[in-house]
Amino acid sequence: QVQLVESGGGLVQPGGSLRLSCAASGSLFSINTMRWYRQAPGKERELVAAITGGSTTTYADSVKGRFTISRDNVKNTVYLQMNSLKPEDTAVYYCNADLRLSRSIELLTNYWGQGTQVTVSS
């Protein structure tokens, strides 16, 4: 069974940094686009950053210049380096990915991780 497992969340002071990781495990053929979303209390889930299979990246305006998304295709892992963190970055961060489960099936299946809490506070 395929799973996405996030790690790296925690409590950090404003201006600090954190790096989130999300590893895909289980039987799969390839990974297409990988994304990070976040959801703050009382707010809708929003897309933070995305990276395609060809490593093209996109970012929400609120994190441009502060966050960097990257991927390691050997480890089936996506990262989110978060610098200059602000209190408004506090949220549960979720990994999301489009996976191709086998060579014989071209259909992509979308998966979510369980989420990791990021709290920015002094």
Indicate the multimeric state: single chain
DSSP strand content: over 45%
**N- and C-termini, Cα separation:** 40 Å
Structural class assignment: mainly beta
Q: Which H/E pattern describes the elements?
A: EEEEEEEEEEE
Low-confidence stretches: none
Structure description:
With 122 residues, this protein is mainly beta. The protein has strands spanning 3-7, 10-12, 18-25, 30-39, 46-51, 57-59, 67-72, 77-82, 91-102, 105-112, 116-120. The strands form two sheets. Strands 2, 4, 5, 6, 9, 10 and 11 form a seven-stranded mixed beta sheet that branches. It has a four-stranded antiparallel beta sheet with strand order 1-3-8-7, with no helix packed on it. The model has no long low-confidence stretch (mean pLDDT 96).
Secondary structure layout plus pairing:
Elements: E1 3-7, E2 10-12, E3 18-25, E4 30-39, E5 46-51, E6 57-59, E7 67-72, E8 77-82, E9 91-102, E10 105-112, E11 116-120
Parallel strand pairs: 2-11
Antiparallel strand pairs: 1-3, 3-8, 4-5, 4-9, 5-6, 7-8, 9-10, 9-11
Offer a concise description of the structure:
With 122 residues, this protein is mainly beta. Helix content is 0%, strand content 59%.
Keyphrases for this structure?
11 strands, 7-stranded mixed beta sheet, mainly beta
